[in-house]
Predict the structure.
Amino acid sequence: MPIRIPDALPAAEVLRKENIFVMDETRAIHQDIRPMEVVLLNLMPKKIDTENQILRLLANTPLQVNVKLLRIDHRESNNTPSSHLERFYRDFDDIKDQNFDGLIVTGAPLGQVPFDEVYYWDDVRNVIEWSRTHVTSTLFLCWAAQAALNYLYGLPKMTRGQKLSGVYEHRTLNRDNPLVRGFDDYFLAPLSRYADFDAGFIGEHTELQILADHPEAGVYLAASDDLRQIFVTGHPEYDFDTLDQEYQRDLKAGINPVLPENYYPQDDASQTPRARWRSHASLLYSNWINYCVYQITPYDLAKMPPKDEPQAKQLAG
């Protein structure tokens, strides 16, 4: 939570210049508190694993967060019991008339599938459009980030010839943005994607602020100026063994996957990997909940802030 100090105390301005979050007494006195209402649109096959991973990060905040689980794919699942889906998940029609503080849209194993061939592509676009008027801030993860860049900014799907898999050291940029408050100069985060997020292309064709990148993997973290759309191109929520599970799965399927980079000790897949990105993941989600949701969202969700139009630049050709 923010530090609360008197309005006129000299430390207030000093701390603000150091990018320390300060709430003055005037604001604190008039601030009402209520739980944050967050929707999780879970597109991952192993839904229970993903629930555990993301809810763990959302729980690492002093704020009370109420989470609703959402699905748009009603085909029979090979990885999640139908009883679990029926009991805990809601359909979009059940919530579309409500407003929410936050929305998280997960990745999906669709990196090599054209958007118009995705079974639920129209549903994804409907949710993205709905979020612009019914959600204060939306966090798009991995494939969802690529999908949102396509829908909101018209960016074409860009696919790498070889999958990025491993733990990559990203560079923190634009430290005045509250989403990266407290980040180290460089931090580790897992990637598992075919999608290509070229920093130069995104910078040229959108008004998004790029907050973290990698020389080979491209953009890792970007945000709209109003913090209502956040794009994370990796999987900070992953458990220590998630990349290993994916690697072993692909080996058994005969795909001949590349060994996840910078992941196994001594690049030996027989050794147990270690999670070295948890502190970054926790800080990213805490910053999102605090600065992009809690500090912006109205107390009365019926008074959702008006949407800003995405600032897409003209694509060449």
